[in-house]
Design goal:
- With 502 residues, this protein is an alpha+beta fold.
- It folds into five domains: 93 residues, Nucleotidyltransferase, domain 5; 80 residues, Nucleic acid-binding proteins (OB fold (Dihydrolipoamide Acetyltransferase, E2P)), CATH 2.40.50; 91 residues, 2-Layer Sandwich (Ribosomal Protein S5, domain 2), CATH 3.30.230; 122 residues, 3-Layer(aba) Sandwich (Aminopeptidase), CATH 3.40.630; 72 residues, 3-Layer(aba) Sandwich (Hypothetical Protein Ychn, Chain: A), CATH 3.40.1260.
- Helices cover 32% and strands 26% of the residues.
- The chain is built from 14 helices and 24 strands.
- Strands 4, 5, 6, 7, 8 and 13 form a six-stranded antiparallel sheet that branches. A six-stranded mixed sheet has the order 16-17-18-19-21-20, covered by helices on one side. The chain has a five-stranded mixed sheet with strand order 3-2-1-14-15, sandwiched between helices.
- Strand 11, helix 3 and strand 12 form a beta-alpha-beta unit.
- Helix 9 runs parallel beside helix 10.
- The longest helix has 24 residues.
- The radius of gyration is 29 Å and the shape is globular.
- The protein starts with 10 loop residues before the first strand and ends with a strand.
Length: 502
């Protein structure tokens, strides 16, 4: 196993496994860069292959909903249906060229699909019929008769060598995409991968043939992606791992067996962690995860980022904060923005933020500074294994970018909606609640014959009504000619109250 990756950065994986949850942390140069979490009750679906059943066809959306045995039906768009996979029955080339969803699938039809996006929020999984099976060096494409090479393999001589070798493995069953990790791989290693992928595909086809065809059992899982630690090790194709530490003997044995068969060069670096402290206490990983759930990210200079996730997009705002610089304002702003590019790239990976991302850098006057900041952001994002795209500065001075989203963000995995604010991040102030209570008492008094009122309310609101707002409450009692009694309820949220007539 290499001591350093191509960028001179030491890289280590920490695997924390328990019966209910598995967490994998990618640490580069002593700093947490990515964290992956998988719970037994909510295993990720990306890469799984199903024989599903079309439940609805929506011509207006050029899409169909497919039952794959999950709580919500999965989504299949017409553009994700391809003919060479033989996943759609009785469809000829003309039907596929039309790209009319009604011509491609029909309600009640059985169809073989693969998950490309996990369910996100209220949306079901995203599907494709373009089946692919990945291994360490190759991706098998059933039905395709060509060879592709990852763009990250840049040397023309190496690209030609790899295409020549892998081209020998292509037949009527399918073709291959050569992954970045294959750079420098031997012919024997590539042949081993190709044979393994063909065995997997053969098993998928056999399961499809054996799958029951009754209406009650029309949904069948044909292929399931390996467990989280195995997937992460397999997919880390852009860096060489120095070490993999696992704190579970069972997970360690599974990983050791996997890398011995498919990634023998990694095998020597897989270790069973025997330390007394929890494994995620190494490199302060546990605390880094907690900090990744906060809106504010401190920069070393004294500046900071504010990160807000919404349904439509993620916004990132940069501020100079306590950083006052040493020369002039323009230099201070430029230096803060430059530092922010590194922090932003890391936070996108760490929080697994995807979709549309809007970055509000501090306004810069110099065109040279603007271009240097954009270039710095591009360089920082180059380390990201997930596809990103930057569209440059908008007329409002905002940087618009996208990052491919295939699984839920760290916040959505670890957090739920706050029962107090219901996801808004805002609570009514005690003063606001006091005035709402006054208005509710007046409304009830006009509608009903009441002797007195009892108000059940949160303790902090009761403190205000018994203190600074006591005079207002007394005036209300005089105006009504009726008593208002307060009953604090410790379990009430700040904005909850009940007015009871007596």
């Amino acid at each position: 196993m290499n001591n350093r990756n191509h960028n001179g950065i030491s890289t280590e994986l920490l695997v924390n496994a328990s019966p209910t949850e598995t967490r994998v942390a990618l640490v580069e140069h002593g700093m947490l860069q990515e964290v992956h979490i998988e719970r037994r009750s909510r295993r990720g679906l990306v890469g799984n292959i199903y024989r599903g059943k079309v439940t609805r066809v929506l011509p207006g959306m050029q899409a169909a909903f497919v039952d794959i045995g999950q709580e919500r039906a999965a989504f299949l768009h017409a553009s994700d249906i391809v003919p060479h996979t033989e996943c759609v029955d009785d469809a000829d080339a003309k039907q596929f060229r039309s790209q009319d969803i009604s011509a491609l699938v029909r309600q009640g039809q059985e169809i073989v699909v693969q998950v490309v996006k996990d369910p996100l929020g209220t949306k079901g999984a995203r599907l494709t019929t373009d089946i692919t099976l990945p291994s360490r060096y190759l991706v098998f494409m059933p039905g395709a008769a060509h060879v592709g090479v990852s763009q990250r393999v840049e040397a023309h001589g190496e690209r030609d060598r790899l295409k020549t070798i892998v081209g020998q493995f292509v037949d009527s069953d399918g073709g291959f995409i050569i992954r970045t990790a294959a750079d420098g791989a031997s012919e024997l290693e590539l042949a081993h991968d190709a044979a393994y992928l063909r065995r997997v595909w053969k098993k998928v086809q056999e399961r499809r043939q054996r799958a029951p065809t009754s209406k009650k059992q029309s949904v069948t899982l044909l292929y399931e992606e390996p467990s989280l630690p195995l997937r992460v090790v397999r997919d880390l194709v852009v860096c060489s791992l120095d070490r993999v530490q696992v704190d579970s003997p069972e997970a360690y044995e599974q990983l050791k067996e996997f890398v011995s068969e498919f990634m023998p060069e990694v095998s020597a670096g897989v270790e069973l962690y025997r330390g007394k402290a929890p494994i995620f206490d190494l490199y302060d990983v546990e605390n880094e995860i907690q900090r990744a759930l906060q809106r504010k990210v401190e920069l070393k200079s004294g500046g900071y980022l504010i990160i807000d996730q919404t349904e439509a997009m993620t916004t990132i705002d940069i501020n100079t904060g306590a950083f006052v610089g040493h020369r002039n304002l323009e230099e201070t702003i430029f230096n803060t923005n430059q530092e922010a590019t590194q922090a932003i790239a890391r936070q996108l990976r760490l929080r697994n933020l995807g979709g549309i991302i809007i970055i509000d850098f501090i306004d810069m006057i110099s065109e040279e500074h603007k271009q240097r900041v954009l270039h710095g952001l591009e360089l920082a994002l180059a380390q990201d294994r997930v596809k990103t795209s930057i569209s440059g500065l908008s007329q409002l001075g905002l940087v618009e970018m996208t990052r491919k989203r295939t699984r839920e963000s760290l916040e959505h995995v670890l957090c739920g909606e706050c029962p107090s604010c219901r996801g808004t991040g805002q609570l009514k102030t005690p003063e606001t609640v006091c005035n709402e209570i006054f208005r509710e008492i007046l409304r009830v008094n006009r509608s009903y014959d009441v002797d007195e009122f009892v108000v059940y309310l949160a303790p902090q609101v009761e403190n205000l009504l018994s203190g600074d707002e006591a005079a207002s409450l007394a005036e209300l009692e005089v105006f009504l000619g009726k008593r208002v009694r307060l009953k604090p309820e410790p379990l009430y949220h700040q904005d909850k109250f009940d007015v009871v007539m007596m």
